[in-house]
From TrEMBL, chain B:
This is Cytochrome c oxidase subunit 2. Gene3D superfamilies: 1.10.287.90, Cupredoxins - blue copper proteins (2.60.40.420). Its cofactor is Cu cation. GO terms for biological process: electron transport chain. Keywords: Copper, Electron transport, Magnesium, Membrane, Metal-binding, Mitochondrion, Mitochondrion inner membrane, Respiratory chain, Translocase, Transmembrane, Transmembrane helix, Transport. The lineage of its organism: Eukaryota, Metazoa, Chordata, Craniata, Vertebrata.
């Protein structure tokens, strides 16, 4: 987000002029699923009722709900993944630092499992 | 640092800034959906053939458009308050630096381990070396260790200033007669820039802040103290 786009990197694409879907995690995924949900909901409603205006309303409502739902789901998983990455990074650092000493996390783990 | 015509936030160099960027993404998505809904409503209003000048009751619609914004505001407020309280946590800093604003330069004091005090002036354009950044580089940078909680005590000797480093998510006012505190932990080494963020006179735009964040092992060897 901060550096100017390098050649080869995706260009900034901003929906409504401000939502950067390329560089915001989960944004592109949520918008695409929202669009799909909107088309399915709107078209499905039209097939059952043949009401164009109301089907458009259902489509817009479907877009908002599906986008929000995907967004929260994806961001929750992204946050979990970041926490796991941070824990893994800390463990790797500890492993490198303490390998072969009495503080070696692997030695502690093997010791407790053999007991 | 920011690149030309940058509108978005800079990459995060502290956990707080990462949280702020996450919250910013969340708020922006909510704003986008609200804008989309409003644009759709505007489109419908402009293209309808229906007219009714006798509408008097619309209880259900009024209930919906009162409750729904309240829910949206709660959805935005909860993460916002979480980060607000997170920024106020003080987690046993290892190092305390004092930053004093003057017209128009900063003074930094490293008094924990010795009495190092120095001024930090912007490099005038005539004194820039090739590769230096105009209006951002300074003669003496603030050298600090990474992955270490650091406390900044900020004040001013004359008028209001503000000590800001966007990549760390920091902005604290320097107020004469008052000592403000902010803490941060940098996660990656590098050189990071900020600018005075409170109007303080003619050269308000020409008193930047430059942090040089280095690994703790190298910081302990004392490059700061060989000034």
């Amino acid at each position: 987000m901060a550096a100017p786009p390098e050649p080869g990197e995706p260009e900034e694409r901003k929906l409504l002029g401000f939502l950067d879907v390329e560089n915001t995690p989960c944004a592109r995924h949520s918008i695409l699923y929202g669009s799909l949900g909107s088309v399915v909901a709107g078209f499905g409603h039209f097939l059952f009722t043949s009401r164009i205006r109301r089907s458009c309303d259902v489509g817009v409502g479907g877009f908002i709900l599906v986008t929000l739902g995907c967004w929260f789901h994806c961001r929750y998983n992204y946050a979990k993944q970041r926490i796991q990455e941070r824990i893994a990074r800390e463990e790797i650092k500890k492993k490198i630092l303490y390998e072969g000493t009495h503080l070696d996390p692997e030695r502690k783990h093997n010791g407790s499992s053999s007991n | 640092m920011a690149h030309a015509a940058q509108v978005g936030l800079q990459d995060a160099t502290s956990p707080i800034m990462e949280e702020l960027i996450t919250f910013h993404d969340h708020a922006l998505m909510v704003i986008f959906l609200i804008c989309f809904l409003v644009l759709y409503a505007l489109f419908l209003t402009l293209t309808t053939k229906l007219t009714n000048t006798n509408i008097s009751d619309a209880q259900e619609m009024e209930t919906v458009w009162t409750i729904l914004p309240a829910i949206i505001l709660v959805l935005i407020a909860l993460p916002s308050l979480r980060i607000l309280y997170m920024t106020d946590e003080v987690n046993d800093p290892s190092l305390t630096i004092k930053s004093i604003g003057h017209q128009w330069y900063w003074t930094y004091e490293y008094t924990d381990y010795g009495g190092l005090i120095f001024n930090s002036y912007m490099l005038p354009p005539l004194f820039l070396e090739p590769g230096d950044l105009r209006l951002l580089d300074v003669d003496n940078r603030v050298v600090l260790p990474i992955e270490t909680p650091i406390r900044m005590m900020i004040t001013s000797q004359d008028v209001l200033h503000s000590w800001a480093v966007p990549t760390l998510g920091l902005k604290t006012d320097a107020i004469p007669g008052r000592l403000n505190q902010t803490t941060f932990t940098a996660t990656r080494p590098g050189v990071y820039y900020g600018q005075c963020s409170e109007i303080c006179g003619a050269n308000h735009s020409f008193m930047p802040i430059v942090l040089e964040l280095i690994p703790l092992k190298i910081f302990e060897m004392g490059p700061v103290f060989t000034l």
